[in-house]
Amino acid sequence: MVYFQISPVGFDCGIDKNDCEKYPDFCKECVKEQLHKIGLYLDQNLKITIIDSEENRIKVFQDYIWQKFLNVLNIKHIILMARDSGLPIIDYPLSGAGINIELLLGFIQANITFSESGTTTNNHSNSGKKYPFYEFQYETFNILLKNREYIRICLVLDHEASDSLKNLVIEFLNEYESRYLDRLELFINTKKLDFGDTIDFIADTFNIKLVFPMTLTHTFLPDTLETIKKNTIQKAIIDFAKKLLASKRFFFIINLIDEVQKIVNIEAKVILYEIYRLLEQNFIYPTTIEIAEDKVLKFHESNATRLASNELISPIIANDDAINELKKKAESMSEEEVRKAIHTYIKKAQTAEKSLIYKEALREYEKALYLATGFDFKDEIGSISFSVLELDKKIKEMDLEYALITAEKAEKKKDYINAINYYKQGLKILRDVQDFNGNESRIKKLEKKILNLQKYL
């Protein structure tokens, strides 16, 4: 049997407090009774807090998410090591703090030895427990350490650890040892390192994605846009995110909060709560600086030959009368006229893009790019190339969404031939953008689905 502790979980009893004779004296007993009915196991660890309005519920989550954010902002480095040998298992820097890990590990081992012998003046809490916290000063950082049976975790922090961060460390150590016990025992016996794929679990536990570089989804469906527009904070968040992305390939949540606060006089935790909701819906999503920069680099490399010879990126306007006319006109245009024309095409493209007329936007961008490459305007080539790439991805994502929705509808109707056909279209799109988006898991799921459907033919 595997036991799961679910926290925090919300439960709506379904009864208005004004209509309930038992409110508030018997609420906890009533909740326990209802949980028992649906088969949830309850013990002494159960904690029930009454939140008697939607407004208060939102405030609780705002505080909860804000504390998550403060905790991860405080962490500069995470090191996981074997408890007995002190050998590092995971070395996970969250910032460019420039810490010498070898010196730090030596410092840690010395301080733990002194602490356990009772000859040090360094603070450490919970000393009466089997696995106490150790807290040291190292250079300008605060060090938080905690042992478990097989492993030891070291957090390099800007400030002292909050109680919620310490609780998170306890939960992490318990689950990490439980999840990866076989690997830990193998490492202790053979010193074989096999923990690279556990970094995702560490990142999820400590909410590291909140300090990752962020970008926006490329596809906002009309219904989605209408919903966001009705939420003034979310609208401001999306608008400022676009503004930040105009000059860089990514943005950080802390900068986004600062930008929104300059205009909207609202608490930072309220803004973060709305950002978090957009994150959960994948309208904002985390990336890495390496991926964001590599994406642009690969784009330039794959198109370098064509750009150098002033060829079009895609054949979408190859037979367009407008581009043929532009080719003739460009022969006698001055540099100043070309820059003005590029600016005009970009404006037209941006207008079309805002109106969700993506194919037309792509035509205008590529006209601008044709002129920029012909006159070797390197700055314009870079920015327009990125716009073309991003817009092409939007089109692919819309095509992907259409293909998958149509395939699912066909599958429900047991029209397996059409279902397979549309799933294959979706699979092709995913493979085309795999290098940029890391779609391996989605590709495998689609391949498996297609194989399963082929059994019906």
Write the layout of secondary structure elements.
Elements: H1 27-37, H2 54-74, E1 75-82, E2 88-93, H3 101-117, E3 133-138, E4 141-147, E5 151-157, H4 163-179, H5 181-190, H6 199-205, E6 214-216, H7 222-230, H8 232-245, H9 253-263, H10 268-280, E7 284-286, H11 289-308, H12 321-330, H13 335-354, H14 358-374, H15 378-412, H16 416-432, H17 434-437, H18 440-454
Antiparallel strand pairs: 1-2, 1-5, 3-4, 4-5, 6-7
Helix pairs in contact: 2-10, 8-9, 9-10, 13-14, 14-15, 15-16, 16-18
Largest sheet: 5 strands, antiparallel
- The 3D shape can be described as globular
What is the radius of gyration? Answer: 28 Å
Q: Which blocks of ≥5 consecutive residues have pLDDT under 50?
A: 124-128, 296-319
- Quaternary state, please? single chain
CATH architecture of the largest domain: 2-Layer Sandwich
Strand content bin: 5-15%
Taking strands numbered 1, 2, ... along the chain, how are they ordered across the largest sheet? 2-1-5-4-3
How would you characterize the overall build of this protein?
The chain contains 18 helices and seven strands. 59% of the residues lie in helices and 9% in strands. With 457 residues, the chain is an alpha+beta fold. The strands form two sheets. Strands 2-1-5-4-3 form a five-stranded antiparallel β-sheet, sandwiched between helices. Strands 6-7 form a two-stranded antiparallel ribbon. The protein folds into four domains: 1-52, no CATH class; 69-210, Beta-Lactamase, CATH 3.30.450.30; 214-287; 290-389, no CATH class.
Question: Can you give me a brief rundown of this structure?
Answer:
This protein is α+β, with helices and mostly antiparallel strands and 457 residues long.
